[in-house]
Design goal:
Length: 147
C-alpha cells in the first residue's frame, strides 16, 4: 500500500533562458518510469506530455474529449493518457489524465538553445488541483494539496 502524502512539499525548479529575456521554468518529474523536465506553463489549460515518449499509453481516439490550441493555432492529433505513476519531488501522485501531443517544435527550440529535451508541460489543471505556489526568487515550487 502506498503511503499517503501529507503536508506541503517543496521541490526545486530551474529557470532557463532560451534567448535574451525569454525564460521558461522547469521542474523534474517522472511519468510511468520516464524521468525528465516539464515546463511549468500556467497558460496551458491541461498538462501534456510528448506523445513520442508514451506511444503505448494512448487511449482510443474516440475517448479524446480535449479541445486544444496554442497561440499559433489549433493543435491537432491529441490523445489522452491515464498515467500509471506521476512523481514530482518526493511525491508519488495518484493516476492523472494528461494529453499527449507532438512536442517536436518545443524540443527543437530546446535543442537549439540549451541542447536538452523536455517531456511535457505542467498545465494549470495540475497547478490549481494541487495548490501550486511558485517562489521565483528562491526557485522552488510548493505543492500544497496532494491526492
Amino acid at each position: 500500500m502506498r503511503k499517503k502524502n501529507t503536508g506541503p512539499i517543496t521541490v526545486p525548479i530551474e529557470k532557463v533562458e532560451l534567448e535574451d529575456h525569454s525564460y521558461h521554468i522547469l521542474v523534474a518529474v517522472e511519468i510511468n518510469g520516464i524521468a525528465g523536465d516539464m515546463i511549468i506553463d500556467t497558460g496551458a489549460s491541461v498538462t501534456v506530455a510528448d506523445r513520442q515518449l508514451f506511444p503505448r499509453f494512448e487511449e482510443p481516439e474516440e475517448a479524446v474529449k480535449i479541445q486544444s490550441g496554442s497561440i499559433t493555432g489549433e493543435i491537432k492529433d491529441v490523445q489522452v493518457m491515464h498515467t500509471e505513476s506521476f512523481q514530482i519531488g518526493s511525491i508519488q501522485l495518484q493516476e492523472m489524465c494528461i494529453a499527449l501531443i507532438d512536442l517536436d517544435y518545443v524540443n527543437k527550440m530546446y535543442k537549439k538553445h540549451l541542447n536538452r529535451k523536455v517531456i511535457g508541460l505542467l498545465g494549470s489543471d495540475f497547478c490549481i488541483r494541487h495548490g501550486i505556489i511558485i517562489d521565483y526568487p528562491h526557485l522552488t515550487l510548493t505543492i500544497s494539496q496532494q491526492d
